[in-house]
Design brief:
Blueprint: H1 2-11, H2 13-16, E1 22-24, H3 32-43, E2 47-49, H4 58-79, H5 83-86, H6 103-106
Parallel strand pairs: 1-2
């Protein structure tokens, strides 16, 4: 979890501040609930569990995602003014931020592919 969050921040600071929904897949595995609890404690927010194999919790997770999208849509509608009220405005010159290459495209694994795996490289 921390590694993924760090990669997002390295790629674009704005991504690290976005709202997130955390989900653990393969909840049919024996230790899945322990992983879910540990991650929830570490992240400080709820962690959902699903299983594509058994279909467990998929419907409720989809509902959570759709509810979150609806809420964001409503917030966006409330914040934006009607087009007729916007009038002419100047667009400020915003500083250009250079996006970095994602670590998997710039780091030590950048040359990996289906044909070239880490296990195939002899140190």
């Amino acid at each position: 979890y921390t590694s993924i969050r760090d990669e997002l921040e390295q790629y674009d600071d704005a991504l690290s501040t976005r709202e997130e929904i955390i989900v653990v897949s393969k909840c049919e595995y024996e230790n899945a609930s322990q992983v879910q609890e540990t991650l929830a404690t570490h992240a400080g927010q709820p962690v959902h569990s699903i299983s594509a194999q058994t279909g467990a919790n998929l419907d409720s997770f989809i509902s959570i995602v759709l509810d979150r999208l609806d809420a964001r849509r409503e917030e966006a509608i409330e914040v934006s003014a009607p087009l007729s009220d916007q009038g002419e405005t100047e667009t400020p010159d915003l500083p250009k931020t250079k996006k970095r290459l994602p670590p998997h495209k710039a780091g030590p694994t950048k040359d990996m592919s289906n044909d070239r795996q880490a296990k195939d490289i002899v140190p």
